[in-house]
Every structure is written in C-alpha cells, then in structure tokens.
C-alpha cells in the first residue's frame, strides 16, 4: 500500500529542511596588512591575514557557504584572493583572479567573497595579484565530507602547508624578471612547513637581521598517538619549487588528490607540485621513544635550498616533542630523476568506487607548446609562440558589459607545427609576440588540451611546469616523454579510471593530456602555477557560456574600461 500524498509531502519537506539545516554559512573577517615576520628566522615584511602568515585555515562541510570579508590595509598595494580548487559554480566573480574575474581590491577598500564549497577535499587559497603569493598571503581550505562518505578511515588528521621563501620583496623579483638582461629570482632562501623554516646562514647575517630562537621560526611539531592512523592533508603553495615530501620511517598511502579519491598506493615519499593537494594516511607504528623528521626537498631543479623540516612526535614517548630526531633529515630522491616523478604521476588514478568516467571523445583539441622566448631582449614564456598578458579590464566584466576593445578579439593559435618541431633543440628564432586574447569555448562542449614541454633557451634544459585550471576539474588522460603525436598518442589515453584534478605537472621534455567539459559559465584562467612563469606569460584564458552568468556585483568593477560602470 502506498503512503498518503500528505505523508509523502511531509517526508519530502522534512528531508529538505534537514539538508538546509546541515548546510551552514561560515563567516570570516580578514584584514590584509604588511607585518614584520620571521618565517625562516630572518626579519622580513610579509603580507599577512589578521597579522599571520599563513592565514587561518577555512574549515567547512560540503555544501556550506563561505563568506570572507576582506579589508585591504596594504597602504600602497592592491589585493585579490583566489580560492584554489573551488569551482565557483554560479559565482564566477568570486574566483579572485585579478584581470580575469575582478578588478583588484584597492588600498583601504573592503570586498566580500561569497561562494559554496560543493565538494569535500583539501584545497588552498592565495593571492592572485602580480606576484603577491610569494609574499605570504596564503592558507588552507579543508572541506569535510558527510560521515561515512569517504572510502578510508582514520583516527585523527594533520594539515601540512608547504612553501618556499625569499628574502627579496616581490617588487624586486618582478622588476628583475622584467629587466634586460633578466635578473632571475634564484632558488629560495628557505623551505617552509606551515609557515616555519630555518635560513641556514642565519649566523652570517648582520646583527638583528636573523634570530634563530624567534618563536615564529620554531620547528613545527605534529603529535601522534601510538597505534593510531592519521590523515595528513598536504598542500603546496610554492612560488617556484617542485617538492618531495617525506615522513621519516613512515610509509604513506596516497588516498586523495585535489579533492578526488585516489586508488590507494603506497610511497616512501611524495612528489608534489605547486598548486597540488594530497591526502596520505600513515600508521603511528614506529618506536615512540624518538622523534622523526618531516622533510621537504626541492626536485626537478638543482637544489640550492636546505631541506625544510618539521618533527613527528609520539604521545607518551620518552623524547621531548621539540627534540631534534637522532638522524639527519632525509634528502629525498635525486633531484633530476624525472622518471621517478613521472611514474608517480601515472600511478595516480581514480578510486575504483569513485570513478567519474570522462566523455569518450572531445569536440575540440587544443595543442599548447610551452617555450621560452624573447621580446625586445627580455625573456618571456609563450604558448604556441604567444606570450600572455593580462588586460586592464577583467574579461568577465568586459564581456558582460560589451566593452569592446578591452582585450584582443583575435583568438590565440590552437596548435603548432607539431610534426616538425624539435622539442629537444633550442629554437632557431626565439622571438615571440604578446596577446591578451582568449579561447571561446562552446558551452557544454568537451575540450582536450595537450600541454607539450620543450627545450628552453639554454641547451639541454627543460623544466617541470604545474598547470592549474580555474573553475573546473579535468580528467588527466595521459602523460608521455617526447613529442606528442595527435595521430598516435590519443589511442593510449586512460579512459577507464583517470583521476580528476585541477593542477597537473608537465614533465621535462614531456606532454600531459587533459579533458574537461566547458559547463561552468564564466571566464577562467589556465596557467603555469610557478609565479614567475605566469608573470612572464605562461598562461591562457577560456570563456564559456558567459551569457548565462547573472548580474555582476558592482564591487568587481571600477578598473580599466569598467571605470564608471
């Protein structure tokens, strides 16, 4: 016998009210200001949130609304904050990308970001104005899943935010990058774990410049109970460095990447690129009477920075929590072992119970060749021989308001001479051009992007590039070393269980193939997450369904041609 209609209606109403009750609104009040900090024991001006760097961790539950009221108290500097990994479905103006989705927040102004965290997982936030991310404006976003929804269990969790740190200001770095000849940013002075590190040459600095006993650079301690299983949420917000992360003596089982569940695999150490997040499980099953190192080491570039360290300490053990372990910190694998890192990338696939199959074929394929080039003697990065520049009027504002002439209406090239280009040689003509044109995608279409790495301006040199897509997750269909052949390699794509990610590495002299659906109305950046590389032109922008975007908040306007709108 069926239930009476009135009973069904009441049941539906009760379920709806329960869902509403579960979704909360999380309010945050942030003031952005410069403060003197000692992140690596050296006194330096840093961009802080409420006086701290890293900023506060945003904690929410899937379906919650996050509201962050940002006051810019930087006296001479604009601000924009990107919520990295949050897709901003229905709120493209809250993506926080200056020049793409909003005008920056001016000194003294207040701007409120409001968005829904629609998916559980580990994410991050950081500045997206100039090279400001390097100055300390960053932090974690942790979105909890419903109880019992995750395909793994653990007794407790810790969060690990990895970063690299320079003593020069971002102004000095940016000026050097734009100079002829270039003044490269160089290797970082320290590697930070949760905002704490140690500059190894502290004693050689001028009196008062470095304080090795300052509490802000005291080694971070992670406490565990013997016999328990812990989830470590690990995020890299580095400006330059690819890192290898290790917890001495403890194997790590990788279970999450960029908010998606991974087919579990065990590693001694984890390669993590700028913009990526992972969750790993460890068992606290080692000798509890000594401490263990957490170690962060540079890979893919010849290291010029000491190992970043923290301490794992067991409750109830005989060792003081802050006592350095009796061993030297692990140095990780060889920095130039590309295939070691390549194999980890290939091993990262979707959890069998959480596979989201990709569409079987693409409607459009874009081949992008990453090259290092020159314009008027200045070194740039380019895609298909076009170096990207941001417009003064944000694309989203310009396109919604019909501001013609705000950016180049000609689309950038979708391919390159892949049949004849030698990716292992220094290109014969390094000259390139600039453009702020974008790729317009048919709404709902399926798009493949193949990123091809190549030799730089110096012979026998190719670097790792972590690429991040705003507003979407993409399926990682395949990796390769050598030149991508569109007539051959698509047959090797993993269409069975590809992982969904928002950031992925392109290995030296290699290619990486992605697929995504252009189903999130808005304008979205896609760029190398190395701060200097994006500053030098390694990025593009996609537009899709912008006519479906609702009325824009007035607060995102006021710059460029939108001044007065």
Explain this structure.
8% of the residues lie in helices and 36% in strands. It has two domains: 25-347, Cupredoxins -  blue copper proteins (Immunoglobulin-like, Sandwich), CATH 2.60.40; 364-562, Immunoglobulin-like (Sandwich), CATH 2.60.40.420. The longest helix is centred in the first third of the chain and has 18 residues, at 5-22. By secondary structure, it is mainly beta. It has helices spanning 5-22, 170-177, 338-347, 395-400, 531-535; strands at 25-37, 44-49, 58-61, 65-72, 81-84, 110-116, 121-127, 138-144, 156-165, 190-193, 221-224, 229-236, 242-247, 252-257, 260-267, 269-272, 277-283, 292-299, 308-314, 364-375, 378-383, 386-388, 433-435, 439-441, 446-452, 465-469, 474-481, 500-501, 503-506, 510-517, 522-528, 539-544. Mean pLDDT is 94; it is low at 1-21. Its cofactor is Cu cation.
């Amino acid at each position: 016998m069926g239930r009476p209609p009135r009973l069904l209606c009441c049941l539906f109403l009760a379920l709806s009210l329960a869902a509403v009750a579960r979704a909360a609104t999380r309010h945050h009040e942030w003031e952005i200001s410069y403060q003197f900090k000692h992140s690596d024991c050296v006194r330096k001006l840093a961009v802080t949130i409420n006086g701290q760097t890293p900023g506060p961790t945003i904690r929410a539950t899937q379906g919650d609304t996050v509201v962050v009221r940002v006051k810019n108290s930087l006296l001479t500097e604009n601000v924009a904050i990107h919520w990295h990994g949050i897709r901003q479905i229905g709120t493209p103006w809250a993506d926080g990308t200056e020049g793409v989705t909003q005008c920056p927040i001016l000194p003294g102004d207040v701007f409120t970001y409001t968005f829904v965290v629609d998916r559980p997982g580990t994410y991050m936030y950081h500045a997206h104005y100039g090279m400001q991310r390097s100055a300390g404006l960053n932090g974690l976003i942790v979105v909890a899943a419903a109880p019992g929804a995750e395909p793994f269990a653990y007794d407790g969790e810790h969060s690990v935010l990895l970063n690299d740190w320079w003593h020069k200001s971002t102004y000095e770095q940016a000026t050097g990058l734009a100079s002829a000849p270039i003044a490269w940013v160089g290797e970082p002075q320290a590697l930070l774990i949760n905002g704490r590190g140690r500059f190894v040459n502290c004693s050689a600095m001028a009196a008062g410049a470095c304080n090795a006993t300052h509490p802000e650079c005291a080694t971070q301690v992670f406490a565990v109970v013997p016999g328990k299983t812990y989830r470590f949420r690990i995020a890299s917000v580095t400006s330059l460095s690819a890192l290898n992360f290790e917890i001495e003596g403890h194997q790590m089982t990788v279970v999450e990447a960029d908010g998606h569940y991974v087919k579990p695999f065990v590693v001694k150490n984890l390669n993590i690129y700028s913009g990526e997040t992972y969750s790993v499980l460890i068992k606290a099953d080692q000798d509890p009477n000594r401490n263990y190192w957490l170690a962060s080491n540079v890979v893919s570039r010849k290291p010029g920075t000491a190992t970043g360290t923290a301490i794992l300490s067991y409750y109830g053990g005989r060792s003081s929590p802050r006592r350095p372990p009796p061993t030297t910190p692990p140095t990780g694998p060889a920095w130039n072992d590309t295939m070691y890192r390549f194999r980890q990338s290939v091993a990262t696939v979707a959890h069998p119970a959480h596979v989201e199959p990709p569409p079987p074929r693409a409607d459009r394929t874009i081949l992008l060749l990453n090259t290092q080039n020159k314009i008027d003697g200045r070194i740039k990065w380019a895609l298909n021989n076009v170096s990207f520049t941001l417009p003064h009027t944000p694309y989203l504002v310009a396109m919604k308001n019909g501001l013609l002439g705000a950016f180049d209406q000609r689309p950038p090239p979708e391919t390159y001479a892949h049949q004849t280009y030698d990716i292992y040689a220094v290109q014969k003509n390094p000259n390139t051009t600039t453009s702020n044109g974008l790729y317009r995608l048919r709404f709902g279409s399926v798009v493949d992007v193949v990123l091809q790495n190549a030799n730089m301006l110096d012979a026998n040199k190719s670097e790792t590039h972590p690429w991040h897509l705003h507003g979407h997750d993409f399926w990682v269909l395949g990796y390769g070393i050598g030149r991508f052949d569109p007539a051959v390699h698509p047959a090797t794509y993993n269409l069975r269980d590809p992982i969904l990610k928002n950031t992925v590495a392109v290995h030296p002299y290699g290619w990486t193939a992605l697929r995504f659906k252009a189903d999130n109305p808005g304008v979205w950046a896609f760029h190398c997450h190395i701060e200097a590389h994006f500053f030098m032109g390694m990025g593009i922008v996609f537009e899709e369904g912008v006519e479906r975007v609702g009325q824009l908040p007035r607060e995102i306007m006021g710059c460029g041609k939108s001044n007065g709108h």
